[in-house]
């Protein structure tokens, strides 16, 4: 009798393992794509390709002011990733318009901006691994470009929606800003939201606090260039804001992606409550997530946001001896912290264009 190999259906365990292996292989390729995309964004190669006829690597290098050998290797990677197209007959390359709309400033959102997080966070991997073994955290000084990248991020989520979608979440707020109120932005970073607000509402007075001297210097320079006399920026540690905040000093306080990486988020929130007038509004934008891991399984950005937390937000807080709240602190915990800080009227919103964030409108 002959031995016959009869194929059998794979067991569910085998199928699951095969699927997981396929996912990992794809992730490796996608990781490479993100590194290449970040380089393309920072060097201007993506912008230089957009809207252009097919170019040789030499022509693209000359157009970009870059070294041809590096440009050629980058093009090879982007072709392999099926982003850039090529014609082998004349060794030319081009970026299709529909892809350029997603990877340059020609479209509504430049997704290449977010690719920068991968190399930025990878640069501190050794520090994070050390913290796994020894405790502590990675200091803010180890992230020299973080404020720059975050400013680009908020420039695509907060700024385009600020006047038409975010401010109207608090009825009457736009009218109050037009009439003239006092506004504070805590953890303001480079202050791009405040710069836009101060220009739009000249009758109101604005101030921004942030721990980063580099970010505040950049913001002050921009305010001076724009001639904004109703706007001031201050380097300030907000870890004791619950005790140092001036009571009733502001009709509006904002934080844009600014609570979860604070050393002492509870103290900051208590200070914000203290600093508001009785009829004041606290407007919060922070990461949309759950406070329970199993409920984040379906989050479309769950893995990358936890990676950002582990490699920046959580560890920077721990480096200051802080709570280490982390990016994915979640809506449930956010609501509990806001209530503990004294806020009684809290409404939560999501905006159609922004799958990444929740928006809280809070009143004392």
From TrEMBL:
<feature type="domain" description="Methyltransferase">
    <location>
        <begin position="178"/>
        <end position="291"/>
    </location>
</feature>
<dbReference type="InterPro" id="IPR053173">
    <property type="entry name" value="SAM-binding_MTase"/>
</dbReference>
<dbReference type="InterPro" id="IPR025714">
    <property type="entry name" value="Methyltranfer_dom"/>
</dbReference>
<dbReference type="Pfam" id="PF21320">
    <property type="entry name" value="WHD_Rv2258c"/>
</dbReference>
<dbReference type="InterPro" id="IPR036388">
    <property type="entry name" value="WH-like_DNA-bd_sf"/>
</dbReference>
<dbReference type="InterPro" id="IPR036390">
    <property type="entry name" value="WH_DNA-bd_sf"/>
</dbReference>
<dbReference type="InterPro" id="IPR048711">
    <property type="entry name" value="WHD_Rv2258c"/>
</dbReference>
<dbReference type="InterPro" id="IPR029063">
    <property type="entry name" value="SAM-dependent_MTases_sf"/>
</dbReference>
<protein>
    <submittedName>
        <fullName>Putative transcriptional regulatory protein</fullName>
    </submittedName>
</protein>
<dbReference type="Pfam" id="PF13847">
    <property type="entry name" value="Methyltransf_31"/>
</dbReference>
<feature type="domain" description="S-adenosylmethionine-dependent methyltransferase Rv2258c-like winged HTH">
    <location>
        <begin position="33"/>
        <end position="104"/>
    </location>
</feature>
């Amino acid at each position: 009798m002959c031995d016959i190999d009869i194929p059998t259906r794979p067991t569910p365990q085998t199928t699951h393992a095969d699927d997981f292996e396929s996912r990992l292989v794809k992730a490796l390729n996608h990781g490479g794509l993100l590194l290449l995309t970040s380089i393309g964004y920072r060097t201007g190669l993506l912008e230089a390709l957009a809207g252009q006829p097919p170019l040789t690597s030499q022509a693209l290098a000359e157009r970009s002011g870059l070294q041809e050998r590096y440009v050629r290797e980058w093009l090879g990677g982007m072709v392999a990733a099926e982003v850039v197209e090529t014609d082998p007959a004349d060794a030319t390359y081009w970026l299709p318009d529909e892809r350029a709309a997603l990877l340059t400033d020609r479209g509504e959102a430049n997704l290449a901006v977010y690719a920068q997080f991968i190399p930025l966070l990878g640069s501190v991997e050794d520090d994070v691994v050390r913290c796994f073994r020894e405790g502590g955290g990675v200091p803010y000084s180890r992230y020299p470009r973080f404020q720059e990248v975050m400013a680009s991020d908020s420039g695509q989520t907060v700024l385009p929606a600020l006047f038409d979608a975010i401010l109207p979440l608090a009825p009457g707020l736009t009218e109050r800003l037009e009439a003239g109120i006092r506004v504070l932005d805590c953890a303001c970073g480079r202050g791009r939201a405040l710069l836009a607000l101060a220009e739009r509402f000249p009758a109101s007075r604005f101030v921004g606090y942030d721990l980063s001297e580099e970010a505040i210097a950049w913001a002050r320079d921009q305010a001076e260039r724009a001639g904004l006399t109703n706007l001031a920026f201050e380097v300030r540690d907000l870890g004791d804001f619950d005790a140092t905040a001036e009571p009733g000093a502001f009709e509006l306080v904002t934080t844009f992606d600014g609570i979860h990486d604070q050393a002492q988020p509870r103290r900051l929130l208590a200070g914000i409550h203290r600093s508001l007038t009785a009829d004041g509004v606290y407007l919060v934008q922070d990461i949309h997530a759950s406070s329970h891991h199993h409920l984040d399984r379906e989050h479309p950005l769950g893995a990358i946001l936890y990676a950002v937390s582990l490699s920046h937000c959580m560890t920077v807080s721990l480096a200051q001896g802080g709570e280490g709240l982390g990016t994915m602190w979640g809506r449930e915990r956010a609501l509990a912290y806001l209530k503990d800080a004294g806020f009684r009227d809290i409404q939560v919103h999501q905006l159609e264009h922004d799958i990444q964030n929740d928006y809280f409108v809070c009143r004392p």
